[in-house]
Amino acid sequence: MDLSYYNSYAEVDLVAVRENYRKVKQHIGSAQDIIPVIKGNAYGMGTVEIATTVIRDCGAKIIASAQPYESIKIRKAGFDKVTLFIMSCPPVHTFPYVVEYDLQITVFNVEAVRALFAAAKAAGKTASVQIKIETGLNRIGVKPGEPLAQLLAAIREAGNITVDGVFTHFSQAVDYEDPFTYEQYAVFEKAVAQLRAAGIEPKYIHCQNTGASVWFKKAEELCNYVRNAGLFLGYSSMSDYSNPLALREPFTWRAFISNIHEIVPGETLGYDRYFKPEKPTMVATISAGYGDGLLRANAMKFGPVMVGETKTRYLGTCMDQTFVDVTGIDCKLGDEVTIFGWTPGGKLLSIFDIEQHSGESYVYPLTSVNDRVLRIYKK
Q: Which residue range is the domain that position 275 belongs to?
């Protein structure tokens, strides 16, 4: 394995991604399909690499992203026929690029519709949109009734915008049978009925995010797609940490031991003399820190890390290097340390172990791994 000049490396198991995607497809059944969401550098695993896998190997016909930057990166990778959908309404200065690259954006207010109309008219094109319905997350969206009616009127007036989808986003679907999810769904049903009464039959109707894709089967009555990022990648984000689809975590990050030494009571370790040993302690310094994306909250709370096949704890972190307790562990300079994912011997340090210890969403440590970390793809 050629690690070139990198201090640490991340292994992305594309075999696992393909199998996880297949399991999600099997779980949702033939009445629905998947809109894979590729955002945040595909949860750290690589936008183009994950997009290529789900399009070429899994048959995805539509990819959702969060920003034009991500969608355009996929388009420029040679995927001319795939629908690229942006799940937000980006700033209006991006609209000429949205039109140029045939991206589908989210709309929920009249002002955006008018700006998109102008950009499409200037390019001599028709723009495609999906309407985001506000059902309770209160981030972006339009409410059913008069606000939605005004939005539809603006779209009709524009004349060069087609409504190809409608969706909403659940707030608490990580909890099985969450009652607020049912309340949100009822609002969404009203919005879809209003669109149909206005003569619009969207191609894409979706409300199930990662959590809801696991359990909210009622949506099959209305929705022809589920939409998730974590689930198809291999992360079931249920609040009870269950993994009902038996998904395999595909992302592993490893660094190397660069120093081993003992500290004793009376000595201190790190900036601000953070760690003060109460007994003789063997400390390994490893070759990655929060400047690479290592989750500082986990390391500073003495969170879990794997040295070889042995679970131990952090003793603190710096921007480029991190301290690990190796007391009683047989290790040497150059040995691999697993920050999360699978050890060389096949033990899993789950990203959810890190979530539970740090109090940070599992998405945070995944998306934080930056370009100082080499990506190696298992195909």
A: 251-378
pLDDT of residue 256: 99
Let me know if residue 21 belongs to a domain.
Answer: no
Q: State the virtual CA torsion across 178, 181, 185, 188 in degrees, nearest 10.
A: 180
Closest CA to 233 of 345, 84, 366: 366
pLDDT for the residue numbered 96? 98
348 exposed, middle or buried (CB, 10 Å; 0-12, 13-18, 19+)? middle
Q: How far apart are CA 276 and CA 152, in angstroms?
A: 64
37 — pLDDT class (breaks 50, 70, 90): very high
Q: What is the pTM of this model?
A: 0.96
Q: Which residue has tokens 């099997």? A: 26
Percent of the chain with pLDDT over 70: 100
Closest to 159 in 3D by CA, of 200, 121, 131, 108: 121
48-100: pLDDT as tens digits: 999 999 999 999 999 999 999 999 999 999 999 999 999 999 999 999 999 99
150 class by beta-carbon count within 10 Å (0-12 exposed, 13-18 middle, 19+ buried): middle
Question: Any idea what the CATH number is for the domain that residue 318 is in?
Answer: 2.40.37.10
- Tokens matching residue 92: 């209006």
Examine the domain organization and report whether 112 and 149 are in the same domain: yes
**Inside any domain, residue 1:** no
DSSP 130: E
- Note the pLDDT tens digit of each residue in 252-281: 999 999 999 999 999 999 999 999 999 999
How long a stretch of residues is the chain? 379
Q: Looking at the structure, do residues 292 and 205 belong to the same domain, yes or no?
A: no
Contacts of 129 (CB under 8 A, 6+ apart): 104, 105, 106, 107, 113, 116, 155, 161, 162, 163, 164, 165
Q: What is the pLDDT of residue 1?
A: 83
Whether 196 and 289 share a structural domain: no
Q: 40 φ, ψ to 5°?
A: 60, 45
